[in-house]
Amino acid sequence: MSSTTLPPSGEQKAIRWYPPSYDIRVETIPIPKIQHPDDAIVKVTFAALCGSDLHIYRGHGGVNKDHTCGHEFIGEVAALGHSYGGDNTGRPSLYSSLKIGDKVVSPFTVNCGECHACRLGYTGRCPEGFLFGSPALEGGQAQYVRVPKAGGTLFNLSDPSTWSSNLSSEGKEKALATLSDSSLLMLADILPTGVFAALQAINHPKVAPIITGKPWPLCFSQNAPSSNQVGLTDEDRILTVAVIGLGPVGICATVSMLDLLSTRQIPYKFVAVDPLESRREKVTAVYKTIDAAGKGNGEFAACSTDEAKDKVKEWTGDVGCTAVLEVVGNTSALTLAYDLVRAFGVIVSVGVHGEPPLPLTGRQVYNKNVSFDFGRCPARAMFPPAFDLLVKRQDVFGGIGQPASLVDQVVDFSQAAEIYRAFDKGEVGKVIFDPWQAQA
Ligand SMILES: [Zn+2]
Ligand SMILES: [Zn+2]
To answer: What GO molecular function annotations does the UniProt record carry, in alphabetical order (predicted)?
Structure first.
């Protein structure tokens, strides 16, 4: 046995949170060990800071136990439990094929990959699922992390035969050889979440008349039975969509939505909304960077909250947006989503709503016939389409620190407390920690 196959032992550095709030420390703690035969230990190459880390950081999560932070990480397999190798018929294929040294990215929650919820693709709600970087499960902002149910959870970037893609096998191999780890890390949460938000909107029944050109309820039938109304006009078939919140997930949702609109040749009017000017500049740079084919046929405006209401009114009269993607998760964002959405529209909300109750009455919801699609992205199930989009949009997802880049900077652990503070204040965009970089 070579030394590289020995399980790691000893101590490691980790970024840890302490209650009640705003207390981030870099500490030396034991390297995690295999606790269950289905576990893997992953040596973390990069770990990212995410907007949803801020809920606990601010003390809003109802959490009172210190723990290692972070739910977005990429790395390589350093140790495997006894379940791996041998005959694992009927279990996720990684229990047979995953090896020490494989490059892997993890979704932000554990998912077994073999229960009813996972079989349906609802991996974000696996009954055995835990969120990394919570009191229930130590996070990935460390040199090593323990991944429970790793055969169902991890995505094996060293073995592209383990997932489907619209790319050819050669296309996948080439992408994996050229994509940077900082780019692939976007698969851990923000890109699947953006794709999920966009897909939920575009596949929603309320959007079908615009996409099919057939009115409700004929939009669902194969044949188009004759009826007694005037046909849809070209104007009727323009999809007006708003994205509220232009942090990293909002950018991913915007890019995903533009990709769906352009590939399906759906004409659109697109309002990207954020109160912060720096974020509006970012989304504008992203839109400019995407080539004509990736933009399709539409108009695009980056707006402040007030500008958004005026722009939607200008573009749709008093009708409103057919789809609103609410990527923030607070009551003011949801109130704005309601104000912007049309009657018979859909609001997709992927932000973590921390403060009950929702700011809407049943009567308001009734009066607009509005549909809501709330909740956590089933990230593991979304990896294949997210990977394809990551490859296609390297102009946005490939760089670091450019005007159109999603990732602002890569830093070492010594800057953790300051970066958390700056991220909380909106002073920096997406930041990646390199746990192995010599501390400044
Ligand atoms: Zn995240
Ligand atoms: Zn499951």
So the answer is: metal ion binding
**Ligand 1 centroid from CA 49, angstroms:** 7
Tokens 């840890």 locate to 16
pLDDT digits (tens, 9 = 90+) for 256-315: 999 999 999 999 999 999 999 999 999 999 999 999 999 999 999 999 999 999 999 999
| CA 34 to centroid of ligand 2, rounded, Å | 20
Domain 3-189+378-433: which CATH class? Answer: alpha beta
Domain 192-221+233-374 is classified in which CATH homologous superfamily? NAD(P)-binding Rossmann-like Domain (3.40.50.720)
The alpha carbon of 253 and the centre of ligand 2 are apart by a number of angstroms equal to: 26
The H-assigned helical ranges of 246-304 are 248-263, 277-289, 292-295
Domain boundaries, the chain: 3-189+378-433, 192-221+233-374
373, containing H or E segment: strand 371-374
Residue 122 CA, ligand 2 centroid: distance in Å: 8
Residue 4 is predicted with a pLDDT of 47
pLDDT of 89 over the 70 cut: yes
Among all ligands shown, which has an atom nearest to the Cα of 352?
1
For residue 225, the model assigns a pLDDT of 62
Ligand number, closest to the Cα atom of 112? 2
